[in-house]
């Protein structure tokens, strides 16, 4: 995925860093937003997310659920093609207009440097990259032409509404943390092209060629690769770690797809 594909299947991509919690992040948001605004990320949308938490001391019965509020901030380009999601302990860069990893990964690093400049971070605890690739057969073709044989699921003549295949791998990659986790999923459905339940491109609009409202038999290749552990704020090494994560995702993509699929995306 390092060179630009003629028919790139990526319709949503995100890269995330988690860092030491900054309880007073709201105090720094105005300054951070102003830095990114001057870089073209001109839309600013504060958001409140409510979550149920169950907290109990060791050995005690489960506690009553407690409703907590988490503040996040969307800092997005005016055309809503890409942007940042900032939280008290994380920064995500996401895009629905993916081109190449050489353009994608440095943007997250750019945002992280801005956060570090304003807040003064101590360390990182997680780095991750996740891609959604759309497999939409052309007229006269089937999804089976695009997916490796082990991912084609059960077939017995009935119309399939939905199917999910998931595999989890231990990986070796990167200069900061050598052991990572790769989660490779293939969602198959007969529906409009959508997103997995846990992943919504908040604040972004899709690329035109992925906007179709047609109900169609298709697949989504959902690949998530991450490392977890204490990491220093060494931006050169962080970039190298992300490049390593991406390279293994590329290998997973090649193992998931057929020769025909790869000819189509490079045609």
UniProtKB/TrEMBL annotation:
Task: State the source organism's domain of life.
Answer: Bacteria
**Which NCBIfam families does this UniProt record tie to the protein?**
sporadTIGR04255
UniProt-recorded name of the protein: TIGR04255 family protein
Q: Which species is the source of this protein?
A: Methylomonas rapida
Q: What is the lineage of its organism?
A: Bacteria, Pseudomonadati, Pseudomonadota, Gammaproteobacteria, Methylococcales
């Amino acid at each position: 995925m390092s060179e630009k594909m003629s028919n790139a299947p990526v319709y949503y991509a995100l890269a995330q860093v988690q860092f030491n919690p900054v309880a007073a992040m709201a105090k720094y948001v105005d300054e951070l937003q102003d830095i990114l605004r001057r870089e073209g990320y001109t839309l600013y949308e504060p958001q409140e997310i409510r979550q149920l938490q169950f907290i109990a001391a060791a050995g005690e019965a489960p506690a009553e659920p407690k409703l907590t509020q988490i503040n996040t901030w969307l800092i997005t380009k005016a055309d809503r093609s890409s942007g940042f999601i900032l939280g008290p302990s994380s920064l995500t860069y996401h895009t629905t207009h993916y081109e190449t990893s050489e353009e994608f990964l440095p943007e997250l690093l750019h945002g992280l440097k801005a956060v570090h400049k304003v807040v003064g971070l101590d360390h990182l605890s997680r780095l991750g990259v996740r891609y959604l690739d759309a497999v939409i057969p052309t007229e006269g073709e089937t999804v089976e032409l695009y997916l490796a044989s082990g991912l084609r699921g059960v077939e017995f003549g009935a119309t399939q509404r939905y199917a999910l295949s998931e595999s989890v791998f231990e990986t070796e990659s990167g200069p900061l943390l050598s052991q990572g986790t790769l989660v490779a999923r293939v969602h198959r459905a007969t529906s409009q092209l959508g997103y997995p339940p846990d992943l919504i491109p908040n604040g972004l609009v899709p690329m035109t060629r992925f906007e179709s409202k047609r109900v169609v038999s298709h697949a989504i290749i959902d690949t998530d690769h991450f490392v977890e552990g204490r990491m220093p704020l060494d931006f050169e090494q962080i970039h190298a770690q992300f490049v390593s994560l991406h390279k293994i995702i590329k290998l997973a993509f090649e193992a998931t797809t057929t020769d025909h699929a790869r000819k189509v995306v490079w045609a």
